[in-house]
Description:
The complex is a heterodimer. The two termini of chain A are 38 Å apart. Chain A has a single domain, classed as MetI-like (MetI-like fold). Chain A is globular, with a radius of gyration of 21 Å. In chain A, helix 11 (204-213) runs antiparallel to helix 12. Chain A is mainly α. Helix content of chain A is 80%, strand content 0%. Chain B contains 14 helices and no strands. Chain B is flat and about 70 Å long. Helices cover 80% and strands 0% of the residues of chain B. Chain B folds into 2 domains: 13-60; 64-295, Orthogonal Bundle (MetI-like fold). In chain B, helix 4 crosses helix 13 and helix 10 (189-196) packs antiparallel against helix 11 (201-230). By secondary structure, chain B is an all-alpha fold. At the A-B interface, helix 1, helix 3, helix 4, helix 5 and helix 6 of A face helix 2, helix 4, helix 5, helix 6 and helix 8 of B.
Amino acid sequence: xxGIYLSALVLLPIAALTSEAxxxxxxxxxxxxxxxxxxxxxxxxxxxxxxxxxxxxxxxxLLAWVLVRDEFPGKRAVNALIDLPFALPTIVAGLVLxxxxxxxxxVGVNVAFTRASVALALLFVTLPFVVRSVQPVxxxxxxxxxxxxxxxxxxxxxxVRKIVLPNLTPAIVSGIALSFARxxxxxxxxxxxxxxxxxxxxxxxxxxxxxxxxENLPAAAAVSFVLLLVALAVLGALTLISRWxxxxxx
Amino acid sequence: MSAxxxxxxxxxxxxxxxxxxxxxxxxAARARRLGLRSVALGYLAVLLIGPVAMxxxxxxxxxxxAVWTALMAxxxxxxxxxxxxxxxxxVPLNTVFGIGxxxxxxxxxxxxRAVLGLLIDLPFAISPVVVGLTLVLVYGKTxxxxxxxxxxxxxxxxxxxxxxxxxxxxxxxxxxxxxxPVLRELGTDSExxxxxxxxxxxxxxxxxxLPAIRxxxxxxxxxxxxxxxxxxxxxxxxxxRIEGQTQTLPLYVQDRFENFDSTGAYAAAVVLALxxxxxxxxxxxxxxxxxxxxxV
Lengths: 250, 296
């Protein structure tokens, strides 16, 4: 029963995608993903995603640190809010950003239809991943190790660099991997704010969508297959990270 | 021994100075903490809190009456109920599947366990647009099963069954992934005890396993529901977005916005945002319950 359900929902559809992408042979597949518009979309998506996960690595770790080690009024509410981008429908996320950073911005910042809007939307939807991945590890981390380092004369920066960060690295990396997968595939939050301009703000997922609308299924399938490979690579990386970090604990 | 002796008796810093040194150290630590806190919360305010507050302001700018009228529009009503209907089918399906898959992955020893795990995680890692396309390629008119479906008069793509399918795919992993760690924690002792006392596998599941994992399952159901109600990309592709027919609430938001009806778009978006806040509250209550149980 489980097998039938999973086949109908995932296995068969993935097989159909692979078959459609490979229908014309490797040459046709290559031509589709290197067509100027497709290539521009793939490059934009990968490029912005790299920037976004780098920002996430820094601010996500910082937020996790503040939520675990700091005490301030309203901390519980802030902690709960971290999950909001996850619970909020993506189309609403786009509209939310547009209401503050769009053409009618009350603060005078209008990023609509620019590449910055792509980054902003992706930062919004990937916010929870690094925070939620680092938080439990930081919680478990023994403060006595840091105190020992400090009493041996290490300054705060040395302690963070030599004691805290090495212990958090697997968690940060897996948070990065999850953010990356999400950023590369994101669609809903981009639709309203980026304007979907080919060669400028059109992300890979938006390109696929417009090709489906134009009934150009081979082009859509080829780029989709690239995104599928990225997703599989991320899942593979996550398995390796969890194996590696559990080895470290032992 | 003698080498460390001078080290021990080294009152190099006078007492008063040492105290003030400690004082400045503490002050520096406090300044650092405040600095980090401001940067972190500032980032959150700019990226998340500001924009979300803004959309509530924009929505109710012209009063509650306009919002109410917008929500009572027939297409808005239809979209709302269709979203609920789809979730009401997809969530129970994924709950049953998720519990089964979690049991299989945690308790089963068989070849291909890793592959099963990968297939369950895949919808989480893959773009919703790709999910939509894969479904069109199987269930669409020219898809693998398209001919057979047409012959039997079943329309999947551009109608509700396809939208249920798309919603089920994107919300597939949550129940399984939230239930697995709870099952692992639980161990098999109590199940074995039940079996020794003569309980059959079904009886063991209903009386022993399910009550023990229920909060993990509920947490997964909350995540599944939130995702099901909010799904946009995959549903957008398989639905055909026919007003008043195959338009869910998230699709309605886009439609209103692109037709320059910002009141309608904001009103529907705020309904979805309130559902998201409800999800957050539920998640928090469940986490607190789990933590309280741990403490006992």
